[in-house]
Amino acid sequence: MMKRKLCDVFEKPLSGEWGVELEEGEKGVYVIRTTNFTNLGVLNLKDVVSRKIDIDKYQSKLLKMGDIIIEKSGGSPTQPVGRVVIFEENNEEKYFCNNFTSILRPKSIINPKYSLYMMKDLYKRKKVLKYQNKTTGIINLKLNDYLNNTEVSIPDIDKQIRIATILDKSQKLIDKRKAQIEALDELVKSRFIDMFGDPVKNQKKLTKVELGKVGEWKTGGTPSRSNNEYYNGNISWLSSGELNNMYCFNSIEMITELAIKESSAKIIEKGSLLLGMYDTAALKSTINMIECSCNQAIAYSKLDEKLVNTIYVYYCIQIGKDFYKSQQRGVRQKNLNLSMIKGLEILMPDLNSQNQFADFVNQIDKLKFEMQKSLEEMENNFNSLMQRAFKGELFN
Length: 396
What we know:
Layout: E1 2-5, H1 6-9, E2 14-15, E3 29-32, E4 49-51, E5 68-71, E6 73-74, E7 84-86, E8 95-97, E9 101-104, H2 112-124, E10 132-135, E11 138-141, H3 143-149, E12 151-154, H4 157-196, E13 208-210, E14 218-219, E15 231-238, E16 247-248, E17 253-255, H5 257-262, E18 273-276, E19 285-288, E20 292-294, E21 298-301, H6 310-319, H7 321-328, H8 338-343, E22 345-347, H9 351-389
Parallel strand pairs: 3-8, 15-20, 16-19
Antiparallel strand pairs: 1-12, 2-9, 3-4, 5-7, 5-9, 6-11, 10-11, 13-22, 14-21, 15-17, 18-19, 18-21
């Protein structure tokens, strides 16, 4: 096993290109952004942009099969910059990566797929952290320093291929299980459409009702950051960035009873519906399974159980979310307000049908829970395999 610096296993990094916007009728080339990255290390090209780039001038920067694309600007406090994906497109289309990324082209001493897993392992072990700097809110990776100073152990090429093959098989099992979980989500949406129709088109001619008529809506608040006695308490305090799942059981930040008493943050009753109001979080939602509080970017209500089932309302809003947002705000307006939330009209089928749908959702949730447990076991197994592989313990 050879000890090498990263700069010895990749060719000199190639910076990405962004080009210029296309004129109407022009055909451009595809440009991959970090929004096309997935945490699995593969690309999602469903939403890849086209730009005008001089191909003759930047011929060397066209992506090739097996290239590693590394994120060099972006990241967040919880997600360091330096994520990697592998380019595996084998068609006639031409692709570049943008100026927030760079191309790492593996040399002949390293298998491309092995190099992907090696770079993912380094990222997972946070080897990138010491090569980050922050300018104007953006985290940048000092790529040359990272490549020149990071040492890795490289086995012979046959062993690399064996390791990559095993990790690939493990990853495919994870991908398959995730696809099964996503299919269950689609099944719930299909059942909703079957029972109630499209909440936008309303083919079944159901009665509509405004959200303001089925519950009392309020907004949360943010206790003063200058008072330390308001934070690190025992009361969950949600921000709109945490409205990612149907149910919410905890929060990133906690506040104190004093904060509830002296600020605009209030206790939200368990089983309430919470809706985001601002920017990209508009109409993201959750149902709190604990007593909690929230900031002013969230509207909430304990809905009237004699009129509606909260699970039904959650899905009605999520399925029709894009339409509701377009109806309640202009093109230039990024935010909703409490009046807009109250004015949202949802379909109002009979309560018995709503409850039947909620029962179906609960059955699917039990199945999803078992699948999620299985997925966690698969991911733990994958992480263990990767750790052993790059410690030289997988094949002795």
